[in-house]
Amino acid sequence: MAAVVGIDDLRRPGGYAAQVLAVAACYYAAARLGLLRELSVEGAVVTPIWPPTGVAVAALLILGLGCWPGITIGAFFAVLSLTTFRLDVLGTLAGQTLAPVCAVLLLRRARFHTDLGRLRDGIALVFLGALTATLISTTVGVGLLVLMDRLDAHSFWPVWLAWWVGDAMGVLLITPLLLLLHRARWPPPLGRWQEATALAVVTCAVVPVAVYSSVSMLFLVYPLLIWAALRFQLVGGVLCALLMSVLATVAATDGAGGFAGLSRIEVMAKLQAFNGTMALTALLLSALITEQRNTRSSVEKACQELVEVLEHLTAGETPRPRAQPDTGGADGADEPPWPTAPP
């Protein structure tokens, strides 16, 4: 369906240009949001969460691969907001564009469904879209920094790991949210709104305490994450994971709470381990529960259809048994059940 929508828009006058500009604007806005919180690793500035990568993957899945120039344009203005234009910027733009395109191609190869209604969809998004495709942009970006003597060679791997995890987190947290918003029904159903309100209140009360407490209490967020995934599937799990990741990132960049007194490398390692495990838990658990509920719904529907068929059959006339041929005897034992030829 996403590919069909993209093709239809390409045929409209000005539709393609509007798509490209919209993708570029969303990419640039997401980049500005991601740059609000930065960490320095080996002299290089990295972001713990890079939302533009998630925006790019979601845009290509929803609108089709034809909107890739919007990613390049958005990345170009995002880079220019940080530094002046140089030849290595072209390589960075190529890596930032190629990574989401490869992610979508890999997901299509795996028969990925944008509704994330199966466990295999969650696994594909994690390992193909987030962990594999982002290797391209990370390797190209950090490699160019080393080649242009803007980064020491011995700092390649720490910066590479921080860059890679930031891109992967953008896909894990932002892409599922945008896919759900694209397929959401408006206005949303208000069933279990009391439980949803209670979950939101408890989450907003517990997460800041767990993140900013001087005692390491980050583990307190996982029961809330499981509660959200069990009761509200992808919507609840992804929103909770995003809120927790944002608050943890703010605390880490401020050096507060459980991140106080740590070096920059330790802060990055602890933060990315926390964000990564939360995103994986929310996405995979939600996808598994959604798949089980869909399977149960399909089985119940099949059983209901079977009951209706049986009721229709039993409501009809019962067929009569076939009459036995008259053998002419009292009990049919003296005569054979078929006529015999004369001697």
Question: What's the short version?
Answer:
By secondary structure, the protein is an all-alpha fold. The chain is built from 11 helices and 2 strands.
Based on the model shown, name its key terms:
343 residues, mainly alpha, 11 helices, 2 strands, 70% helix, disordered N terminus
| Beginning-to-end CA distance, first to last residue | 81 Å
In percent terms, what proportion of residues is strand? under 5%
Task: Describe the sheet with the most strands.
Answer: 2 strands, antiparallel
What is the share of helical residues?
Answer: 55-70%
Number of strands: 2
Strand order of the largest sheet: 1-2
Mean pLDDT: 83
SS summary, helix count = 11
Description:
This protein is mainly α. The protein has helices spanning 2-11, 15-34, 51-63, 68-80, 87-109, 119-132, 134-147, 156-183, 193-212, 221-254, 264-314, and strands at 39-41, 44-46. The chain has eleven helices and two strands; from the N terminus they run H-H-E-E-H-H-H-H-H-H-H-H-H. A two-stranded antiparallel sheet has the order 1-2.
Element layout with pairings:
Blueprint: H1 2-11, H2 15-34, E1 39-41, E2 44-46, H3 51-63, H4 68-80, H5 87-109, H6 119-132, H7 134-147, H8 156-183, H9 193-212, H10 221-254, H11 264-314
Antiparallel strand pairs: 1-2
